[in-house]
Specification:
The structure is a single chain. The chain has a domain of 85 residues. 29% of the residues lie in helices and 25% in strands. It contains ten helices and twelve strands. Strands 6-7-8-3-9-10-12-11 form an eight-stranded mixed sheet, with helices on both faces. The protein has a four-stranded antiparallel sheet with strand order 2-1-4-5. The structure holds iron/sulfur cluster.
C-alpha cells in the first residue's frame, strides 16, 4: 500500500477503500453479484497538495470521491482525515454530528454548474446556504461573507440578489466554487469541475482554482477523465482502471515516463499543437472492462498492446518501482513506454 512519501502529515489517507454495489434480480430481489466500482484503493494527499484522479468514464473515480466524503457509505476501508477540531478521524466510522463537523472542512465542487444550482435561489441564498446550515453566520455577517466569497471568485458582490440563470457557464461554476468554499474548508474534492465548460473558460476556472488554493491554503482531490486538464493542476496523478489504481506518480514523472500501458494509451490520446505525426499512436480498442464481471488477471489485459500469457492468469500487484512511482503491471520494469511530450 502506498505510504506518504512527503515530509509532514498527510491531510487525507485512504486505505483499501472498497465500494461494491449489489446487483439484485428476481421477485425476492436476491443479490446475484456485485458491481466493484471501487476495489481496494489506497492513496494519501498532503496538506496544500493537489492529487489528480483520472480514468475513463465508469472507472470508479467519482464513486471513490463520494465514498471519501461519506456521501455514500463505503463497503469497507478507511478514510483518515485531519480535522482541525476533531483531530485525525476515520470518516467511515463517524456518527452524524461528527460527520457534520468534518463536512465543514471537506467540500465538493460538482461537474455541472447548471444542474447543481437551484434556479429559484439568489446567489445570497446559494452561497449562504452552507453557512446557515452549519450555523456559521446569519444576518449581516452572512451577507458580508457571501460578498467576500463572490469577490474572491471574481464576481461582483452586488450580484448577490440575482438568480443563476443570469450567468454564463463559467460564472455559474464560480458561484459553485463560492458556495463550496464559503465555510473556509481545508479539503475540496473537485469532481470534473471544468468538463461541462468551453475550453477557453476551462483555463480560467483552473487558474482560479490554483489562485484560491494559494490564498486559502486548500488541498484538492481533482477528479477528471481528461489527463491534459489534470496535468495543469496536479502535483501527483493517480490513474484508475475498473475500480483500482494502476499507476500513481508525481505529475512530471508520469507524463515523461509512464510505466503502465493504460497510462501510455491515455496520453497518446491527448491532442497536441505539434503538427508533426506521432511516432506512435495507441488506439484503445474495446470497452472498459465490466466492473460487475471483470476479466481474469490484469483487468486491462483484453485491451493491452503488450499482453503476455501471465497477464490473463495473475493479477499484478501495485508496486513502487521508483520513489513515489507506483505501478500495477507485470512488465512495469521492462517496458519502454512513450509519455506526453508536452504537459
Ligand atoms: Fe498489459 Fe500485462 Fe501490464 Fe496488464 S499486466 S498492463 S496486460 S502488460
Amino acid at each position: 500500500m502506498p505510504e506518504p512519501t512527503h515530509h509532514g502529515e498527510p491531510l487525507l489517507e485512504v486505505k483499501n477503500l472498497v465500494k461494491h454495489f449489489p446487483i439484485r434480480r428476481g421477485f425476492l430481489r436476491r443479490v446475484v453479484g456485485y458491481v466493484r466500482a471501487v476495489d481496494g484503493v489506497s492513496f494519501h494527499v498532503m496538506e496544500g497538495e493537489t492529487l489528480g484522479l483520472v480514468g475513463e468514464s465508469g472507472c470508479g473515480k467519482t464513486t471513490a470521491g463520494r465514498s471519501i466524503l461519506r456521501a455514500i457509505q463505503p463497503t469497507s476501508g478507511e478514510v483518515w482525515f485531519r480535522d482541525p477540531v476533531l483531530g485525525r478521524v476515520d470518516v467511515t466510522k463517524l456518527g452524524r454530528d461528527q460527520l457534520r463537523q468534518v463536512w465543514r472542512n471537506m467540500r465538493v465542487i460538482f461537474q455541472d454548474p447548471y444542474a447543481s444550482l437551484s434556479p429559484r435561489m439568489t446567489l445570497l441564498d446559494i452561497v449562504g446556504a452552507p453557512l446557515r446550515a452549519m450555523g456559521l453566520a446569519k444576518g449581516k455577517e452572512l451577507e458580508d461573507r457571501v460578498a467576500e466569497m463572490l469577490e474572491l471568485v471574481g464576481l461582483r458582490p452586488e450580484y448577490m440578489r440575482r438568480y443563476p440563470h443570469a450567468f454564463s457557464g463559467g460564472q455559474r461554476q464560480r458561484i459553485g466554487l463560492a458556495r463550496a468554499l464559503a465555510p473556509n474548508p481545508k479539503f475540496v474534492i473537485c469532481d470534473e469541475p471544468v468538463s461541462a465548460l468551453d475550453v477557453s473558460v476551462q483555463a480560467q476556472i483552473l487558474n482560479l482554482l490554483e489562485d484560491l488554493q494559494e490564498k486559502m491554503g486548500l488541498t484538492y482531490l481533482f477528479v477528471a477523465h481528461d489527463l491534459s486538464v489534470v496535468a495543469h493542476i496536479s502535483d501527483r496523478v493517480a490513474v484508475m482502471y475498473v475500480g483500482k489504481i494502476v499507476e500513481m506518480a508525481p505529475t512530471a514523472e508520469l507524463f515523461l515516463s509512464p510505466r503502465h500501458p493504460y497510462t501510455e494509451a491515455l496520453m497518446s490520446a491527448i491532442p497536441r499543437p505539434d503538427p508533426r505525426p506521432r511516432e506512435k499512436r495507441i488506439l484503445l480498442t474495446g470497452e472498459v472492462a465490466n466492473p460487475a464481471n471483470p476479466p481474469s488477471g490484469c483487468y486491462f489485459h483484453p485491451r493491452c498492446a503488450y499482453v503476455q500469457d501471465v497477464c490473463a492468469k495473475e493479477e499484478p500487484p501495485l508496486e513502487e518501482i521508483s520513489p513515489g512511482h507506483w505501478v500495477k503491471c507485470h512488465l512495469a520494469r521492462e517496458l519502454q513506454l512513450t509519455g506526453a511530450v508536452q504537459v
